[in-house]
Design a protein that fits this description.
The protein is 56% helix and 16% strand. By secondary structure, the protein is α+β, with helices and mostly antiparallel strands. Adenosine-5'-diphosphate binds next to helix 5 and helix 8. It catalyses: ATP + protein L-histidine = ADP + protein N-phospho-L-histidine.
């Protein structure tokens, strides 16, 4: 009887406990929803701002043309080209936004296949060599001498990663400088690095540049006309490959962006 007495629970106390547990859980849920809502609001504000920039620019060029600039053939050409460039920037931004939202909502499935990662490096090099040479930048390809280094990955998505990283290495670099696409073998993994001797990234910004729309010193990079979404896309694609980006950078000296992939093993 004594034992039973001891084990007897007080139902009122139990209910009280449950109510207070429920209340604290509800509070946590509400906090989470509030955070998500403010995140969404901030995102929408960013998107609207980014969309407005090229729209206003295009509008400005067209209004100037209508205002009389159209009569001069040279000026007409110049303003039409600028308007076209702004529209292409807008297009780029919308494409990046769609890609990001599709990846985040799981709508894009990675298309894994086995291929030689060295082919991807050469492909990226060939696609961007011309762009680099316009700025008198040399791209170096530093590959190991292996016959083949196979990975199981999504070729096209990894190509997008390479193009984003190498384009940045060119964009945030000085005329006449260098970009290296390097591949290293590491036991059961390969390590890809994109190395530049350009502007570098201040330490306080290094942790944040993978966030959507985050840019170092807005005024400086605005001139470069990017979407601010490139590295966010890179981060997502790599995470779908169980990989992540690592960054070392020094302001004024350059940056190295690296990621690793597992080598493909024959079953
Ligand atoms: P953006 O479209 O602005 O290039 P990204 O997401 O690709 O957007 O990059 C975010 C920011 O990180 C850039 O605006 C730039 O300030 C910085 N950044 C990226 N790559 C480099 C690099 N190789 N060297 C210096 N800064 C870089």
């Amino acid at each position: 009887e004594r034992i039973l007495q001891k084990e007897k629970v007080n139902p009122l106390k139990m209910i009280n406990q449950e109510i207070s547990d429920f209340a604290s859980k509800t509070e946590q849920e509400i906090d989470k929803l509030k955070k998500m809502e403010s995140f969404r609001r901030e995102f929408m504000a960013n998107v609207s701002h980014e969309l407005k920039t090229p729209i206003f620019a295009t509008q400005g060029y067209i209004l100037t043309l209508l205002d009389g600039a159209m009569d001069d053939e040279k000026v007409r050409q110049k303003f039409l080209k600028k308007a076209a460039k702004s529209l292409s920037q807008l297009n780029h931004l919308v494409e990046d936004l769609l890609t990001l939202s599709k990846i985040e909502s799981g709508q894009i499935k990675m298309d894994f296949e086995v291929f030689d990662i060295q082919d991807l490096m050469v492909d990226a090099y060939e696609q961007l060599e011309h762009k680099a040479s316009k700025k008198d930048i040399t791209i170096h390809l530093d590959l190991p001498d292996n016959e083949s280094l196979e990975v199981n990955a999504d070729y096209n998505r990894l190509m997008q990663v390479m193009l984003n990283l190498v384009t940045n290495a060119i964009k945030y670099n000085h005329e006449g400088h260098n970009v290296t696409i390097q591949l290293k073998e590491k036991e059961d993994r390969v390590k890809v690095s994109i190395i530049d001797d350009g502007m570098g990234i201040p330490e306080e910004d290094q942790g944040r540049i993978f966030e959507r729309f985050y840019r170092v010193e807005k005024s400086r990079t605005k001139k470069q006309g990017g979407s601010g979404l490139g590295l966010a896309i890179v981060k997502h694609i790599l995470s779908e490959h169980n990989s992540y980006m690592s960054l070392t950078s020094k302001l004024g000296e350059g940056s190295t962006f690296s990621f690793e992939l597992e080598k493909h093993r024959e079953e």
